[in-house]
Amino acid sequence: MIGEGLHSTNQRKHSYVHDHVEVGFFTDPSVCIGCKACEVACKEWNQVPDDGYTWSGNSYDNTGHLGASTWRHVMFLEQDRQKGNQIVGSHSLAGGDGEDPFRWVFLSDVCKHCEEAGCLEACPTGSIVRTEVGSVLVQNDVCNGCGYCVVSCPFGVIDRRPTPLPDAGGAFKCTFCYDRQKSGLVPACAKVCPTESIVFGRLDDLRARGAERVQQLQQSGYNDAQLYDPTETSVRGIHAFFLILGEPEAYGLPPKPQIPTIYLKSAWTSAFATAIASIIATLLAFAFFS
Amino acid sequence: MAEAHPVGFRWVMKAKERGATIIHVDPRFSRTSALADIWVPIRAGGDIAFLGGLVRHIIENSLFFHDYVVHFTNASCILREDFRDTEEGATGFFSGWSGEQCGYDRKSWLYDGDHGLGFPERDLTLQHPRCIFQTLRRHFARYTPEMVEKICGISPALFHKVADALVAASGPDKSAAICYAVGWTQHSKGVQIIRTASILQLLLGNIGRPGGGILALRGHASIQGSTDIPTLYDVLPGYLPMPRGDGSEATLHDYLARHTKPTGLWHNFPSYFISLLKAYYGKNATAENDFGYNWVPKITGNHSFFEYLYDMLDGKMEGMFVMGQNPAVAAPNSRLQRKALAKLKWLVVREMVEIEAATFWRDSPEIERGELKTEEIETEVFLFPAGGHAEKEGAFTNTQRLLQWREKAVDPPGDARSEGWFMHQLALRLISKAKESNDPIDEPLRALDWWYPEDEHGDPKMEAVLAEINGWYTDSQPNADGIVFGVDRAGDPHHGPQIDGFQRLKTDGSTASGGWIYSGVLGPDKINKALSRKSKDYLGHGWGFAWPADRRIMYNRASASPTGQPWSEGKKLIWWDATQRKWTGSDVPDFPVEKAPEFRPIGNENGLDAIAGDAPFVLHEDGLGWVYVPSGLQDGPMPTHYEPLESPVHNALYSRDTNPAVHWFTRQGNRFAPPGDPRFPFVLTTYRLTEHHTAGGMSRYLPHLAELQPEMFAEISPELARELKIENGNYLCVVNLRGAIEARALVSRRMRPLHLNGQLVHQIALPFHFGTDGRVRGDAANDLLAISGEPNVTIMEAKAATCNIIPGRLPRGPAFEQWIKKYAPVDGPPNLHPEQPPAGAPCARAGGGHGLEGKIDSR
Q: Do the Cβ atoms of B262 and B119 come closer than 8 Å?
């Protein structure tokens, strides 16, 4: 699948916005080389400011997490597990120091563009909208910076930009390069990905590709390869889904992400019950003491 | 490769997707290792032992590609009786060593008999005791898997995994490629490491065939281009040696006599060289004045970067131009480099940002420590703003020898200008000054044919330069077909039609070419092929232009059997068409196209006529692939394992520790620790991060790159961290006899301690991108590396040294001096290594040089 050049959906022009086609990102860490080109291309195209020169000491990850000024984030996981049938030094062979597995996994995280988006539902100003291609877009000129979206995202993606950065106060996240897509261009991160670890395209095609890739990997020794694409929970599926090696928790991905609004019914029910109970208690109090 | 060449690594991932096994050999587990099938942690500097182990394994188990080795390589050639190998007494010396000369008399390394290198005596049964195959077998006999483990820390089990994978991927219907970068070249035996890989690939039949080869991944865009049309002191364009000034090449005749080979492609040397002189001097170059040979500067010794650095330190050099380089950060022993810069009278720095080479006089560790004082530095620094790569046009040449033209996207901002503009305008001014003078020393400038047309900004038209490199007929025929940029700056006819390949070049002055190997890139069809972007086949014909002659795979005659048939259907490339009686196939044949496979020379032919129909390596005088180098190398005809100049251990194979022919550049301030020095127990290696570019001029100053790797760090293993009581993120100091730097500890299992011969050895790895300027700052790893010179190409050993680690912060300012005295005292003579010559000894300075010994084909 790598190396289709100009024919790849990561390179060719498209009309998904015009045709109202649901699009997505499929991100595959088994071919990610951790180059961070996606992070840089994203910031360059979208004019996202740098957010500090802080060395983390956490492998090569000095980005930390997604946020108002980080819309792509490459994770660097050093784990005591084997990657497929990979041999890493004499340690992993009999005759060396015995079984001592190790692997380094890279995964480029991004806004999931949920089918049911917590941020969108929480936004009181109508700043957050759903686009023709199914992505979730923050309109920064409408955003009043209330921050309701920040606590409503089950993935911790969206955030308000702190001072003294430009446009401080407003909420920001990945736009799915909506501006590029409107012109038939591919999102910047997918465009520059040298190994097509990030693939952009029609969501249905990508889901098929993802399923095929998992099967392929499992057959070649990657027993823990699986798709992270929660469709059974209240987010009802995501537009940016991932292949992961191991469990979602290792990547900071909630195994069962929920949008806060599903708790509305139970929240209102308990509020109602509390209200009734206090009225009754009050009435009873009057009845006893009058 | 994923780390430093992420875009090219796309194709490695593509190969992996198609079932290729990826093996990565590196002291540290890098981003490349993360994607490889097998990671082989190796002790830095053990490469020849490891590769030599593979050579031995393949020979001893008869796993080599028999027909390829017998017919296409020099394995069958017979050596002289007086040749002595390093193995005799395990001394580590070949025959011909002269301690006084610090070098070898290499006569005994030649083939037997008096035929020179052409028409050697051969034994195709490979049984003759003095044949190269048997010599090679004996030479590597002790490089057993157990020895590999002792030297490199690679277990026999892992060694066999690699050997099996490599052998399984080679043969008539398979091929394997080897990619390397400065992790191989920057050693005291760098050339011989690559030679070992060449032997391996020739034994496995992986040269000249699709999917095979040895690929030098270049450190920057067009580093290949900068050796083809070189910025090297000792090579002229097209790998023609710079004439010597020692009297031995006083005339054109002497020079050509030395470098023209009787047989093989280099027989045509005079036509390449004289055409170059015609490109330099135009009509001023005539047969009567030896085509201006006297105007060509002659080299009087080793004028490599390190030699003139020492000249700067000694006050012998007044000024310097720094372009596309940052010696204050990127060059070995950068402390010494910065001190040398401070001795100059003037310094021109052309850069996009104000790099450390331009600010050393006010903002360097030496200023902070009081070693240098701004008010005492006389250097006048001229900082010229330079255009970036999108702001100028020109060609890049990549590792595949592919020229790709780049158009200008935007004009450079403000006063920034391209290199082309700068050099062109400088040349115009110098020539005009020379024309005002009568001084004979200015004659070469007056003789130059500086004809280049300009655009509206005063930039020379770069396609005119490319046209000159391609070459043309010198006779100006204003109305002839195939003329490109045919008029000079005065508007007069300047030259005739373009030539369509280097075969057209002549010795009579009727042709000019600024770089014969590129000929054909802009021929009489007037098409700049470097700019073409329509790929027609899987080899990429139609996309760019691969020198020579748009040949995508060199020595591709080897893709067919001795009788001219493809070795297999899957790996066919070119083959002999018996009905049409010519070589044909999907690549441009790298062979005389009508020479039949069964052709055999009788022994009195010249040039390519002397090459047999089954001898693919046409650049060599015998047409054979060299598993043994009879001529051309300074430090031995076969690779031999020597320890790095600084090593925690002695050589397990020989009584000699280090490469005898190496240049130590002995000097106070450039000291080496002796083998096993307990003060410096750890192996140090340096590397690049994806996020930064070399000395950081193009990354540390850019916020979106700087934030990704914002601080200097040192990678150490959890075992070493425990031993030193260092926790992840702590500050530590790395110190050795050159200096000390501060870094944060990045503790990771990606670094592994190795067991060498019963001794536990820790390796630490440092990125080398940081300096005192830019948005993110840190100490320069190159402060710790020594200047040294590999015997053939004078490259330093940057990939293996020793050091100590002291937990905590490095004292800043004047306190540094006291601190470093404690951990790395510098009293006494500078030659602490028992094999190191004293300062001032003839052997302490470099000789050699790239092009001096006849081995001038492409590197």
A: no
